[in-house]
C-alpha cells in the first residue's frame, strides 16, 4: 500500500486533471490504481466505493505481463498513446484513446493515464478556450488552497513563503499570522534556527525527508502530522516544499491499539491467534512464558506442538467446528511445556475475520491450582463418605449384635469361685491388654468379653464380634480387614473391614482356634503394629483396636501340632481368663433358672410359673455338657411344655441324659479319669492351693512336686 503522502500527491495530479476536463487515473508499477477522478468513475459508471482497485479490472485485455511491457515502454518514450478497451460496470466495453506518462511522486515512479473521453463539441470548446497562464496559475493556487493536506513553501532562511488554508486552520492562526512565523516556531521537528539549517541541508542532500512530528497550535495543544519535505530550486533560489497530513486520530488509534496490545500481552490468560493451518499467528507474554518458549519460537509452531490432545487431523475438525459455531468452550485440555512437563488448562475460542483472513482467538487459563483444590475436595468428600460408611457399618454391626447377642444384661452368679473371674474382668478392663478367654462351649465367653469392653474406656465405641468358625476361610480376611472393588471374584464394591469399623473400640474374635494359619500372620501384625491393608490395596490403614479372643480349643496343643502360630498364641495370651463350666458352679443354677423362666414367660406371654425344689434338684443333678446355653434352651423348652402354673422340667430333660443314678454309677472310669477327678476335687476343696499347709498335696498325702507334675501331665487348669 502506498504511503499517505504518495496518495495525497496523486490526489493533486488527479484534481488538476479534473479541472482541465480530463478523465484520469494514477497507477503504480504493480497495476494498483492509487487515485482516479470523478470523470473516470462516471465514464465507467462506478461510484467511489465500488470503483475497481487495479488497471486489470477496468482494462481486461491488459494482463500483468502486458502491463510490465507497457510500463517498460516508458524507458524509451516520454508518453505512450494508444487505443484502450475499457470495461464499464455493466460489463459493456468502450474503446477510447489514452495517453500515459511517467511521473515521480515522493521518489516513487507512477503511471499517469488520461483518456480522451469528452464529446467532440466539448473538446472543441475546451481547445477554443483561452487557457492562458493567468488562468492556470489561478487554478493551481485554487487547487493547493483547497487541498486535503497541509502545503507550505519555506525559504532557506526559514521564512514562510506560502501556506495553504489547512495549515492555518490546523494551527488555529490566521494565514497572515502563520506567514510571519519562522519554521522553527511551530514544529517539534526543529526547535532552533541552527536545527532548521541542519534539517534544510539534510533535505537538500537526500532530496526528500519523511518525518512524523508535532505541530503546535495557538490554544497550546499539539497536532500530530506526517510531513514529507522536498528540496527544489526555482529561478536560482532554494526552497523547501512540504506536504503534511494530520495523523492525530491515527496516533490516538495506534496508542489505543498499543494499550490493547499491552493488556493482551500482560493478562493472566494464555492468549493466542491461530490460523486455519493450526499455526500460531500471535501469542502473548503469558502464553510464551508458561510454555517455556520465546515468542519467535512459538510463531514457528503449531497448536498440536503444545496441546497433547490435538493433532493435525483433529485440528481440521476443530477448525470446522469454529466455522460452524463461531465459539467453542470452555473445555479442559492439557498443554506441554518445552521441558516436557504438562499442565491442565481451560480453553475458550472465538472465530473471527481480520483483513479478509480467518483466525481463532484462543484464551486459556492454567487450572493447576483449581485441579489440586478439586482433587483435595474430592479427597475430603471421599473421606467424609468413607467416615459416613464407617459409621453406617458400625451402626449395622451394632444392630446385628443387638439382634444376635445374648439377652444377659448382667452376669448372674453367686458362686464364690466364679467371683474370682469377675475380679479378673475388673482388673483387665481398664487396660489395653489383649485378653484370651478360655472355656467350654456355652459358658458365656462372649458375655465376659462384653463385660470387659463395657468396663473399659472404649465403652462409648462399638464392640465388633467376628465368629471365626462361622465364616468360610476365604472370607475371614475380607471380614477382618475389608477389600477393594475388584479384589476378587464377587467383590463388586469396596468393603470396610471390621477392624477398621472398630477403630477406637474392641474386636471380639470368637472361636479364634478356627482361624486359618495363613491369616494368623496378618492378625499378628494388626495386633503388634496396629496396621493392615484391605484386600486388593497397597495402602496401609492404621486402627486403634483392642482385641479380645475366645476359644474352647486347647491352643497349646494346636501350637505343638503346627495348627496355630506360637507367636500369635503368646500375643493373645497376655491376660488369660478361664470361664468355669456350669457343672463346677451348680449353686448358680437356681438364680439362672429363675432368670430364664421370667424371660421366656414374658417372651411367650405366659403367667409366671412356679419353680419347685424338686425341679431345681433334678436340674442340679444334670452335668450340662452344653453349659449355660444348654440350660437356657432347656428352660425355654420347659416353659413351652408346662401345662399348668408349675415349671415342667422333666419333659425338657434329654431322653438319653435324664437323671439316672443307677445307670450313671454303672459307668467305670479309667485310672487317668479317676485320678484327674480326684485331684480336681482336692484342689477345689483347698481353693486350688497345691503345696504347703492346708494344701491339696497335704490332703492327698502326696509330695508337692509330684502333685504339680501330675497336674501338668493331666492338663488340669484353674
Strand order of the largest sheet: 2-1-5-4-3
**Coarse shape:** rod-shaped
Strand content: 15-25%
Strands, total number: 24
Helical percent range? 40-55%
Q: Give the termini distance in whole angstroms.
A: 114 Å
Note poorly predicted spans: 118-136, 399-409
Radius of gyration: 57 Å
Biggest pleated sheet: 5 strands, antiparallel
Average pLDDT figure: 81
In DSSP terms (H or I, runs of 4 or more residues), the helix count works out at 28
Specify the structural class. Answer: alpha+beta
Pick out its properties.
single chain; 718 residues; alpha+beta; five-stranded antiparallel β-sheet; 28 helices; 22% strand
Summarize the structure in words.
The chain has 718 residues and is an alpha+beta fold. It has a five-stranded antiparallel β-sheet with strand order 2-1-5-4-3. Strands 7-6-10-9-8 form a five-stranded antiparallel β-sheet, with helices on both faces. The chain has a five-stranded antiparallel β-sheet with strand order 12-11-15-14-13. A hairpin with a 5-residue loop joins strand 3 (79-87) and strand 4. It is rod-shaped. The termini are far apart. The chain is built from 28 helices and 24 strands.
